[in-house]
Design a protein that fits this description.
Number of helices: 9
Number of strands: 0
Distance between the termini: 12 Å
Shape: globular
Number of domains: 1
Oligomer: single chain
């Protein structure tokens, strides 16, 4: 018999699937849609639990009069992907890779802060993103974390986009088979 779904389960599954599709080089619209759906649930759960989420911290840097969800997550892409009632003939510029990566990272960071553990998909993406963007790390934790990221993803930032995704997919495949990682208390299954 199938277990009932919780909002948390749905967010974990959507985010894990989005990351698998991302590293497989699949459709960015689908990846973004899954990631933003997961982020929205995780964001609400973090707020309800009083978690100092990465999204909460990001909101502190959003210009006055702007809203993280409305102006940066939903507009223009997420709303465009969901609605056609008032703009059925409208077109948009292609979805930037940086937008997809950014929302994936936001959702992953918030998920980990909320739950304290995560599926390997989220762990691998977190390392991949930080290896690609070491400048985004806080100097207080940067050295040790950069070393770990560089070890998992050597030379990532100098690779082509396709090679970056391929390396991410390879590390994810290896991590998915790693019994020690699977048994780590900080690791949970993506799909029940």
């Amino acid at each position: 018999m199938l277990e009932p779904l919780t909002k948390f389960d749905v967010a974990r599954r959507q985010l894990s699937t989005a990351i698998e599709l991302f590293f497989a080089g699949r459709d960015a619209v689908s990846v973004y849609s899954l990631a933003t759906n997961a982020w929205e649930i995780i964001d609400v759960l973090c707020a309800k639990a009083g978690i100092d989420s990465f999204s909460f911290q990001a909101r502190e840097n959003v210009p006055e009069g702007k809203d993280l969800k409305r102006n940066y997550i939903n507009f223009p892409y997420r709303n465009f992907f969901k609605h056609a009632d008032s703009d059925s003939e409208k077109t948009l510029a292609p979805l930037p890779d940086s937008q997809v990566e950014g929302v994936l990272f936001l959702a992953v960071e918030d998920y980990i802060r909320l739950n304290g553990r995560s599926p390997v998909q989220l762990q691998v993406f977190q390392l991949w993103y930080l290896a690609k963007h070491p400048e985004k790390l806080d100097a207080a934790v940067a050295d040790e974390l950069i070393e770990g990221c560089a070890s998992a993803f050597p030379g990532l930032s100098s690779l082509s986009r396709d090679a970056q995704l391929t390396l991410g997919a390879q590390v994810l495949a290896h991590a998915a088979e790693d019994k020690e990682l699977a048994n780590d208390p900080r690791t949970e299954r993506a799909f029940a």
